[in-house]
Write a structure and sequence with these properties.
This protein is mainly beta. The chain has no helices and 13 strands. 0% of the residues lie in helices and 56% in strands.
């Protein structure tokens, strides 16, 4: 199982980016996925999570600006980031929690998996 995060880059404040987290390997479907970020010199924080069926929730710092969605046909979860602020500068990670993936065997994943991180830099 691998999670591939992509879509980061350099953006001016007020702009938008869409991050992708593609799950590959012995995967049948994504049941749950969370997005985290780690600003320079700070702790990693959870921003948002997605549960299959459409349930989502967000940290207060991004609610109303960031949106999680998924494409089940691609086993990919997205993080749409609008109205970006310099404070959003960080490395962004996706994480599939325990049982967050359904494997080809039909069983749930018994480990958590992290994507490799993608850098988002927002200039003022």
């Amino acid at each position: 199982v691998q999670l591939q995060a992509s879509g980061g880059g350099l953006m001016q404040a007020g702009g938008s980016l869409r991050l992708s987290c593609a799950a590959s390997g012995n995967i049948l479907s994504i049941n749950a996925m969370a997005w985290y970020r780690q600003p320079p010199g700070k702790e990693r924080e959870m921003l948002a999570y997605f549960i299959s069926g459409g349930r989502t929730d967000y940290a207060g710092s991004v609610k109303g600006r960031f949106t999680v969605s998924s494409d089940a046909t691609k086993n990919t979860v997205y993080l749409q980031m609008n109205n970006l602020e310099p404070e959003d500068t960080a490395v962004y990670y996706c994480k599939a929690p325990l049982a967050g993936l359904t494997l080809q065997s039909g069983s749930y994943s018994t480990d958590e998996y992290w994507g490799q991180g993608t850098q988002v830099t927002v200039s003022s």
